[in-house]
Design goal:
Two copies of one chain form a homodimer. Chain A is α/β, with parallel strands linked by helices. Chain A contains eight helices and eleven strands. Chain A folds into two domains: about 80 residues, Arc Repressor Mutant, subunit A (Orthogonal Bundle); about 110 residues, Rossmann fold (3-Layer(aba) Sandwich), CATH 3.40.50. In chain A, the strands form two sheets. Chain A has a seven-stranded mixed β-sheet. Chain A has a three-stranded antiparallel β-sheet with strand order 2-4-3. Chains A and B meet through β1, α1, β3, α4 and α5 of A and α1, β2, α4, α5 and β9 of B. One nicotinamide-adenine-dinucleotide sits at the interface of chains B and A. Chain A binds a DNA duplex through α1, α3 and β3.
Chain lengths: ~260, ~260
DNA sequence: ATGCCTTTGTGAACGCGTGCACAAAGATGG
DNA sequence: CCATCTTTGTGCACGCGTTCACAAAGGCAT
């Protein structure tokens, strides 16, 4: 996932809904919404699971955390389930969101229609660049960072999106938190440190690609076991390479430099 | 994660590196690169773990899967570790990447500098819109979808990025796979079905926000324990007769998929 | 060399998530 | 009302991931 991972350890479970289940609820909701638009009245766990790309047993267990909303022998009422999941996710209310850093990515996010379609409303676009201030992006005037605190307070914003360069991310984060933001979606490739009670999720394209590259390399290595490294293994750390776990993934073993 | 979760179950483990560890290696690599640029020679697991935002024991265990690259009493050699992780992730070679769908998001991705900084090279930008063909984005001419297969074959591309609307994603995916792509990063809000051996990771902004909203709602609920449901819970499933719910319950989400 | 101090590497315990498999529940038909 | 069939809801087992805690390893000073 492109999704953040380390969330909250296990402070107090929110009424018994596992984090892994919460992460899948939007997936189910999307599939259910599609069914709803096709006026499908009911759906079985098997069908819905296929549409969401998960195991049917997992789906049923997930739903069991929400309550017994299905009918045995029939399935789940689509409309009813859409409502229940929406309510559980807090989508029956409107969530004003501020986007900070209106560059390439920030502008794309502002233009993204998928925002509004789920109860998220772009309350403001904020950038530190004075030349951007006042200019409209996606129909909303970009505002200067100076007004950040005021905007958040006036609109009761609790969710912020950071799309600034990595170097500014922590600073922006601190200001957002100080202003009352308690949930942050971070696109900058940095680890943000936040006080207790503030949720941070990160989206890091670079990490996703690197994970793909890892598996890609492994696939290639299986097909062609005879692979030679291009660059020399660099200098080992002085004289400390003591042991190696059996045969490495490929033949490359760093040369042990005699002390 | 914003990252996809369900990866490969346990087909054939890459000889000992857990998926969770692989997902953290880029994080370590980023922190190590920063240290390297500051010419820090060695780093302890405690320091590095803090920089990467993880538990130090976890970091040490992660590294133990790669081999014994540390020195007890001292720590890890930064340069050496950078190389080892880069090699493990397959970043010592160049990975040509194609981006399909050069709209708001695709253009932002094309302009993203973080691509090239890790060995990923944008080999081509592809879009179905004829009016885009030939126009330069981020210094690269957009090419029409017709040339997709040829581009992939000519450049030996194995990683593809999908940034088209959801409705086209599966179709684009199928073409990519048929052309030889074996790793896909999907930004479209759809479940892609791919044959065995093809890796898919998804980045879904909407899902991330919904997860944040869930926790946000819970925080609010804790502060105000006396909260009664605002909207009536809609009609229970009741009799599952051929009831066709015309106008859905008021709690129904708008849910309009952007075309 | 020897002893002390720091830090790694890892065994083991634990908790979470996943998936199987099935009993119970309800619908449906006779 | 009963039989049968479908599908839910879940008990249970298993494997993965996380974390603790500590012995071993190495550096460094004496
Ligand atoms: N573009 C992508 O596809 C992409 C992909 C993944 C990650 N990212 C990350 O997202 C972030 C933004 O990327 P981008 O391509 O849009 O960069 P960009 O340079 O185009 O935009 C950054 C914007 O942030 C503004 N900014 C800088 N400091 C600020 C501050 N302190 N307060 C408010 N605004 C500030 C700048 O004025 C600029 O408009 C970067 O951290 C990048 O690494 C981008
Ligand atoms: N913009 C965002 O911030 C954002 C965020 C999250 C997810 N997404 C998703 O990313 C995708 C792209 O978003 P966007 O805002 O860039 O949309 P967009 O409409 O601006 O761009 C889509 C592009 O894809 C091209 N396209 C359509 N069908 C194609 C096909 N079959 N083959 C090749 N190209 C095709 C279109 O010509 C267009 O240029 C969407 O699925 C969207 O839901 C976007």
């Amino acid at each position: 996932m492109a999704t953040g991972r380390n969330h909250r350890p296990a402070t107090s479970r929110s009424r018994g809904i596992p984090e892994a289940t919460v992460a899948r609820l939007p997936l189910y909701l999307r599939a259910l919404t599609a069914l709803s638009e096709r006026s499908v009245p009911t759906v079985s766990s098997e069908e819905l699971a296929a549409a969401a790309g998960v195991n049917s047993a997992k789906l049923r267990k997930d739903f069991s955390y929400l309550g017994s909303y299905g009918t045995r022998g029939v399935g789940y009422d689509v409309e009813y389930l859409v409502y229940q999941i929406s309510r559980e996710l807090g989508l029956t209310q409107d969530w004003p969101v501020v986007i900070v850093g209106i560059g390439n990515l920030g502008a794309a996010l502002a233009n993204y229609g998928g925002f509004a379609s789920r109860g998220f409303r772009v309350a403001a676009l904020i950038d530190a660049d004075p030349s951007l201030a006042g200019k409209p992006v996606a129909g909303i005037d970009v505002q200067h960072t100076d007004a950040l605190e005021q905007i958040i307070a006036d609109n009761g914003v609790s969710i912020g999106v950071i799309a600034t360069p990595a170097g500014s991310a922590q600073q922006v984060c601190d200001r957002l938190v100080a202003a009352g933001i308690t949930s942050i979606l971070n696109f900058a490739p940095t680890v943000l440190s936040v006080p207790e009670g503030v949720d941070v999720r990160k989206v890091d394209l670079s990490i996703e690609l690197q994970i793909l590259a890892f598996h890609e390399q492994r696939k290639a290595g299986e097909d062609a076991p005879e692979e030679e490294e291009t660059a020399p293994p660099a200098a080992p750390p002085a004289a400390a390479v003591t042991k190696r776990p059996g045969p490495g993934p490929d033949g490359d073993v760093p040369a042990v430099m005699p002390a």
